[in-house]
Amino acid sequence: RITRTDPVVAQRQVGLAQGLERRGAAREALGRGSISTEHAAVIVQADRNLPRQVTAVQRDRVEADLLAKAETLSPTALRRAARRALEAVENDVAAVDAHENELVVSEEDRARAKTRLTMHDNGDGTVTGHFTVPSAQGSLLKKIIETITAPRRGRLGASQAQVGEREARTDFDRARGEALVELIEHLPTDHLHPRSAATLVVTVSEEILRGALKAVGLDTGEILSAGEVRRLACNAHLIPAVLGGKSLPLDLGRGSRLFTEAQRIALGLRHSTCAADGCDRPFAWCELHHLHSWALGGRTDLANAVPLCHFHHQRIHDHRYRHTRAPDGSIRFRLVT
Ligand SMILES: [Zn+2]
Ligand SMILES: [Zn+2]
């Protein structure tokens, strides 16, 4: 049945109908409702994928074998099984293996050809993207996102100031979106290209780094709040090109603005997680924040470093929140009233 639908779907349906003309048993099973259209499409495709020398009688046996499997397998699982459909008529395991590998190679080629990333500027401070990647990389991304969203941000019953809005924790699309933002900021972009690191350059006055509340323009045209600029300046992703005011040399005087790898390792011996009270985000994902701001004369030494996860690092640079440090070093946030 072809209804008003998009051409790709329509073409697929025509292909399935044609394929079913030669696969009587599958057509019957579909008519009886004992298999789904997806199952039928897998069986038709498996038949097309069989080597040319497979006889008509053998094809019927392959079909019967897949129909039996379709009773218990999902379409995805059946698709996996169908790559070894030759098994039903071929005793040589090596031949079945080789045929499966051939099918996988062409699947990989097709997946690579379909790979896309498109991004669209919504003009409202957000960008919307759409991507298609091969399943293996898709699964990897899913695992990474799930890992980032998994740990809790605070103790049970912690304040909103400590753990963020309720929606941000219960809306899974939003949680995954925030995890993607975190992932982007944590990519090792400094080695992407030998000369141009994938960093944002901001022209910022000394007053901003010292704490003034003023939005700042980036080299890419976006605007960031003063708090975001100061947070990004704690990481390597943003290079403040300081203009005006008293001179504040970036690479002189108090040495490097960024903590070294050795300092990071040393700090990791003291902290296993984000320093915010009750936050379980592992140290390895944390951003190193200068407790006493570098721009205000804070030193880039261990005593001045505190590991904070992406969320709590944002919070500590958000002028709407204050924080206190407990004797054990854990940090608690409260909303400024
Ligand atoms: Zn910071
Ligand atoms: Zn945290």
Search tags:
single chain, 337 residues, alpha+beta, 2 domains, two-stranded antiparallel sheet, 14 helices, 10 strands, binds zinc ion
Described by the principal axes of the CA atoms, the overall outline is elongated
Ligand inventory: zinc ion
Largest sheet report: 2 strands, antiparallel
Low-confidence stretches: 243-254
Rounded average pLDDT: 84
Strand content: 5-15%
* Number of distinct beta strands: 10
User: For the largest beta sheet, what order do the strands appear in spatially?
Assistant: 1-2
Can you describe what's shown?
By secondary structure, the chain is an alpha+beta fold. It has 2 domains: 7-114, no CATH class; 151-335, no CATH class. Helix content is 45%, strand content 14%. The protein has 14 helices and 10 strands. It has helices at 7-21, 24-32, 37-49, 56-70, 75-82, 93-114, 135-149, 160-163, 166-170, 172-186, 206-210, 226-234, 261-270, 310-316, and strands spanning 116-121, 127-132, 200-205, 216-217, 223-224, 238-243, 287-290, 305-308, 321-325, 331-335. Strands 1-2 form a two-stranded antiparallel sheet. A two-stranded parallel sheet has the order 3-6. A hairpin with a 5-residue loop joins β4 (216-217) and β5 (223-224). α3 (37-49) runs antiparallel to α4 (56-70) and α7 (135-149) crosses α10. Mean pLDDT is 84; it is low at 243-254. Bound molecules: zinc ion (2 copies). One zinc ion binds next to α14. Residues 262-314 form the HNH nuclease domain. Pfam families: DUF222.
